[in-house]
Sequence to fold (239 residues):
Amino acid sequence: MDEDTNVRVPVLFELSGVSQFYGKGISMVRVLEGIDFTLDRGETCAIVGASGSGKSTLLNILGLLEQPVSGRAQFSGNDVQTASPATLAQWRNQHLGFVFQAFNLLPRLDALDNVALPLLYRNHPRQSARALALEQLSAVGLAHRAHHRAADLSGGQRQRVAIARALVGQPSLILADEPTGNLDQRSANDVIDLLLRLNDQQGVTVVMVTHDTHLAQRFARRVEVANGRLRECDEHVPV
Fold:
């Protein structure tokens, strides 16, 4: 297998006729049904929908964490369904950054070591990993909190650390699953400001799942998941 995800094709992710369901027989639950979705490099896209509509399932497919039951999925021009588990893991590690509602930080580690973790998992030299981690903490405005434990940071600060951790591997795509769900409105807006600024300044593609339609309006593109289908909320103009 000779996939090359570094080829700069304008389409980053493409889903064609993708369906996803769980269970069998009468207990089968259809979550996504025959959806088509194209994500271009450099886009910002908010995925909205009711609880249980399939938003997180769609995000998991885009994050190479789930394989669709049917249809075709391509990441950077490569067939996702024929890629080996090792290849998918490599793509996730090298090209994707994840931000979660619950932050998923190690509370006893300081901010710097939390951000450096993805590089250490790649066997990156510790001193170099920490230097790169400090750069990302600076980018999210938290260099002054680098040596504070995650447990001692506010919710908004912890989410900024989580974003810095997602960025430290220089991903082409950030996937954020309800990243503002545990934050007050001011902190939530600050996090969205940060994600949009990173997109504008660094060209990182950002996809966010949210139930907050007001925050979603700040993204250039919005899609709604409902009854297993995908609907473009506004006319999609490719970047």
Remarks:
- The first helix runs from residue 55 to 62.
